[in-house]
């Protein structure tokens, strides 16, 4: 019975007309990632991983050079030279993939830690903006197909995050 009541309430809410002041959109990811705190966090991550990123770039360039050498000179190389070059390509390719995976994991961990720490402030900022505009429903901006001069709360949420 509870489920039926819940479904009926949901259908009633969907059938009610939505007025422009009742519905607003928000891209909470953009609001959060454009905040000063997120920018500081990302700069900190770039500084922490700069040597690893440089190493990955260098390995990538070496791999390209080795591949070009194999393509250009492979036909005139002896079997042992070609085999040695292919072995070096596999070794450096493996190193490159491992380094890239470590960098990606570090970035994901840093982003997750930031999201967890920022979520309470984000929720408070959203509540303040929603109360200020007396909004009844907030929809993720990415889920909206069409909107005529609607209320987008994204920048206001970012401004509140930066003010705190």
What does this structure look like?
The N terminus is likely disordered. The chain has one domain: Skp domain (Protein Binding, DinI Protein, Chain A), CATH 3.30.910. It has 164 residues and is mainly alpha-helical. 10% of the residues are buried. The protein has six helices and three strands, in the order H-E-H-H-H-H-E-E-H. 74% of the residues lie in helices and 6% in strands.
What is the CATH architecture assignment? 2-Layer Sandwich
Count of individual helical segments = 6
By CATH, the topology is: Protein Binding, DinI Protein, Chain A
Based on CA atoms alone, the radius of gyration comes out at 26 Å
Number of domains: 1
- Secondary structure class reads mainly alpha
Main beta-sheet strand count, sense and barrel state: 3 strands, parallel
Order of helices and strands: HEHHHHEEH
Q: pLDDT average, as an integer? A: 85
CATH class: Alpha Beta
**Distance between the first and last residues' Cα:** 46 Å
| Proportion of residues in helical segments | over 70%
Q: Can you tell me the CATH superfamily?
A: Skp domain
- Stretches where pLDDT is under 50 for at least 5 consecutive residues are 1-20
Note the beta-strand portion.
5-15%
Which geometry do the CA atoms define?
A: elongated
Strand line-up across the major sheet: 2-1-3
Number-wise, the strands total 3
